[in-house]
Specification:
Radius of gyration: 17 Å
Number of domains: 1
Structural class: alpha+beta
Keywords: Magnesium, Metal-binding, Transferase
GO molecular function: holo-[acyl-carrier-protein] synthase activity; magnesium ion binding
Number of helices: 4
Protein name: 4'-phosphopantetheinyl transferase EntD
Helix content: 10-25%
Organism: Nocardia alba
Order of helices and strands: EHEEEEEHHHEEEE
Distance between the termini: 22 Å
Strand content: 25-35%
Shape: globular
Number of strands: 10
GO cellular component, one term: plasma membrane
Largest sheet: 5 strands, antiparallel
Low-confidence stretches: none
Oligomer: single chain
Length: 223
């Protein structure tokens, strides 16, 4: 599913069923030595997907460490993003000569828990939600998913926190049925976006979204 919302030059891999014989990379085991089983499976599964994506790019399937605020540490010359939710783990990777950053997120296609929306959205975003018929789509969770993908695209370039209130996201809906849909989204960054790579300051991101098979997926490939 993820490849449907990523450019062809971005490699991706997904894991819907966790293989019972899948274990942590020996160089990563210390990062999850004290983690509960669910956390271990999410960590192992997402990084397994990352190595599959690295191989698609012609790179070695190396260990992936953990940096500031949990940021995955990919090999030099590679940008990417990991995500996981119940029943799903995935990774998207690209060469940094082609893209400055990649951000993906996956969420269950369900409404946000009560009280969460106000803390993760701006008034203009809540107005859009109230004015847009859902028709079976949980657009509140879609908004949250797009905010998460935005953060994952932002942080590796800036090494700075980005709050939910620091990004205004608007959506276009290209197709919709009772339980699936797809479209685009645009993120306007509301805080200064100077980047540590010396490139152009970040002011916005554009992404794609997909709702299918009980999942919401969002993806940004920022060139």
């Amino acid at each position: 599913m993820l490849e449907r919302i990523l450019p062809r030059s971005v490699a991706s891999a997904e894991l819907l069923v966790f293989p019972e014989d899948l274990t942590a990379h020996p160089a990563e085991e210390h990062l999850i030595a004290k983690a509960v089983e669910k956390r271990r499976r999410d960590f192992i599964g997402a990084r397994h997907c990352a190595r599959l994506a690295l191989e698609q790019l012609g790179e070695q399937p190396v260990a992936i460490g953990k940096g500031e605020r949990g940021m995955p540490l990919f090999p030099r010359g590679i940008v990417g993003s990991l995500t996981h939710c119940d029943g799903y783990r995935a990774a998207a990777m690209a060469h940094s000569l082609r893209f400055r950053s990649v951000g993906i997120d996956a969420e269950p296609h369900d409404t946000l828990p009560e009280g969460v929306l106000d803390s993760v959205s701006l008034p203009a975003e809540r107005e859009w939600l109230s004015d847009t018929p859902g028709e079976g789509l949980h657009l509140d969770r879609l908004l949250f998913c797009a905010k998460e993908a935005t953060y994952k695209a932002w942080f590796p370039l800036t090494l700075r926190w980005l709050g939910f209130e620091d990004a205004h996201i608007t959506f276009e809906i290209d197709s919709r049925t009772d339980d699936s849909g797809s479209g685009t989204f645009h993120t306007k960054l509301l805080v200064p976006g100077s980047a540590k790579d010396g490139g152009a300051a970040l002011t916005e991101f554009d992404g794609l979204w997909l709702i299918a098979d009980g999942l919401i997926l969002t993806a940004i490939a920022h060139g």
